[in-house]
Amino acid sequence: MTPLIYSTLIISLGIGTTLTFASTHWYLAWMGIEINTLAIIPLMTQSHSPRATEATTKYFFAQATASATLLFAATSNAFFTGSWDILQTNNPLTYTLMTLALAMKIGLAPLHSWMPEVMQGLTLLTGLILSTWQKLAPFCLIYQIQPHSPNLFMALGLLSIVAGGWGGFNQVQLRKILAYSSIAHLGWMVLILSFSPPLTLVAFSTYLMMTFSLFYSFMMTKTTHINSLSTSWAKIPTLTALTPLILLSLGGLPPLTGFLPKWMILQELTKQDLALVAVLAALFSLFSLYFYLRLSYTMTLTMPPNNPAGTLPWRLNPSHNTLPP
Amino acid sequence: RLIQMSLPNISRVPASRLLRSVRDLRWLLRSIAPLAVPRRALTQMGYRRPGQPREDKPPWWRVKFDLSKGLKGMKRHFQLLKEEFFAEFVGPMGKPIIEHMLEQNQVVWEFRGPHSLQEWTISCDREIGGKSEIYLKIGKNNETCLLYGTLCSDPPKDGETRYSGYCTMRAKQPLASFDRKKYHDWSSFNTLHLRIRGDGRPWMINIIAETYYTHQKDDMYSYFLYTRGGPYWQDVKIPFSKFFLAHRGRVQDDQHRLWLDKINAIGFTLGDKADGPFQLEIDFIGVCKDYAHTEDFAYEKYKRNPEV
Model-level pTM? Predict the structure, then answer.
């Protein structure tokens, strides 16, 4: 891809999200989301492999369906309330439709089935953009919708935590594991949205930092499978020592940063007399912790046999191997 | 009185007089008139041998209903479902995680008894009216399989086919319970390892990966297999980066590497236009990880001009 086209697409991604952030009108916010979707499509199909086009097609179908539902809900809201303002979402029916549409956009359970297959077909960089940047605009809208009752968000949140944990249980493909991790974390975020929106932002920002770091670690070691992860100890020893910290932070273990949002969410839920929900969320996140621990175990705590004649990728973009000439 | 639904009769009906201007009234007589073209699209129908008349039987006419077979099938499928369910407790895809971490070699197909032959399908140009023959049997001591036969390049005299002379052996797609498709996940490996004994003929190895679109149905990734002949076994190691994309035998311009996470089947094809008997003995087909092989893809990728 030429630098001009590439930079156009990246700038369009930025413009789309910024447009949604800055808008109070549903139409403009929807347009920002559409710009985002359309800008990432060529980035996903950069390599012409059939898996990439399959992932792009599935992504497009999911996002187009969600966008159409969102636009319909916004139009219906304007019909019922007479206002296109995002903050004036008063009708329960339109509010529910909007929530479900945005849930499909970001990949919340039970509308999450597109996410692992799409992530599997992408490169790690595009997967990173999908997991982090593409969530910003829909999340901004979810944040602004005034919830009528917390039940919908709690149901979506709990289902996502379960689906994210259970789905990633027996995966060996790292991109699919990251997709399920994303689903589980989004579940935590929407769980507390009705009661304390700032906590959602805290959870989201820590999730962004941790996911970015993990994706970048996998990009540095060029690993997409648990087998190649296990032999990455010889490639970048320092990264091998630090990546478990990122993984355990994602798992929510103290004293790492990832523990903070989980702790505060559980505390807030308990304050709202929802101790059962808190217990269920904590228990189901153990599934996610299991596969994070498994990744840490394969990467750091074991040293499977590795052929030292293999290429060391830790020098910036190496083009030679270490075999003697 | 039986009303003859012919075109002139319809045109006498006052309301349909206007329809006389419609050139093709077959869509009106759809359920009554015999069809000149089949109902379903060409891609959806089974293989039609060139020169044979088209079959227009509805799908349910071809199914043979048998209660005992159905009950046995249900029992087998539920048994498979139960095994799959409990295999997930062992680890991903039924293997413990330590195996996923450490595996560097995996034998995917080996021939240790007549039951191994159930996983394979053989075919030759006899299906299109040619004269080749192909047979598959278990070799001596139940240790290998022997693919043998006779190749004949004479095209069938059906007025349509111009070229002929191929023999092929292809693995069947693994199926889970209730005939769901299963895939081979070879993403831990980067090389195909075969132990074969041939007769000096050049074969083509085809790997069929899972596709999404209907137009990709006949996509396969191929590479050459040159057999040495003679009594000695040959260990052939072909990196997956060498496989190139072909569709129905035609090599594509827009090449890309083979994705190893969803492989459906592997096949061997002989089509070297040398008429006569052939033999290929296979001990095992496996995959292995060669750490020293770092090539992603061996061929230049298609770049349009001007580049976009």
Answer: 0.85
